[in-house]
Each structure stands twice: as structure tokens, then as C-alpha cells.
Amino acid sequence: MSDILRLENILLNQTLKDKTQAITMAGELLVKGGYVDEHYIAEMLKREELSTTYIGNDIAIPHGTNEAKEDVKASGISVIQVPEGVDFNGEKARVIFGIAGKDNTHLEILSNIAILCSDMENVEKIVRASTKEEIMDLLGGL
Fold it and tell me: How far is Cα 137 from Cα 115, in angstroms, rounded to an integer?
């Protein structure tokens, strides 16, 4: 795996009050990791207003709008584990994947996450992971 996902991009056992806080936190991890400019967070929030980034199986994948392409410096993923869940338009997301894709790689990243998380057993492993390394191992193929 390349630098798309690093240990510092993962937060365990978070309690979030709403999807805005979840999306902002996912974006802040991408900014800290050097993947995106600060403006990308606003585009992530704008994208959520267009249609929810909740994809089912307790997973949300917030990402920027098409206009945010210039804000992306490198492809990256942030992961936030929220065991109690956070409300995404009436659905409970227990894992938030913030993604940024350089040169249209976001579709490939989205697809890989969707395939991995289509198996609820994998989602439960991510939710129950007690270390960042466990999550890295589970997501090793992304």
C-alpha cells in the first residue's frame, strides 16, 4: 500500500454529534496528512448537501465536489471509527471514510471501499478494531 492511508489518518472510538462534525473531522485528517487544501472540507460539506455520502452497511464516504479537484494534492483516505454511530440523514454510520482522489482516482478508491464494506463482517471488524494497525491490516488492499 502506498501513502494513501497512514496510521495518523485513523481515529478510534470517536463520539460525534452529527454528520457535519464527522465530515469536518474526516476532512481535517486529510488536510493534516497533506492530501488536500483546507478548502476541500467546505467542498466535502457541499457535496453532502447535494446527496448523502452514506452508502449503507453503517458506512459513509464523504468526499469533495467536482469543483474541489484543484484542492487535492495527493490521493488519501481518512478513517474514523464511531462505535455508537453518527446520524447521516436518518442512517447510522459507524465508520467514516474521508477520501480525496488525485487525477480521478477517487472512483477507484470509492469502489474498493464499497466492495470491502459490502461484507458486513468486514465492517464489524473495523468497528471492533482496538488498534489502528488492525484497521490498516483490514484496509491493506485499498
Answer: 16
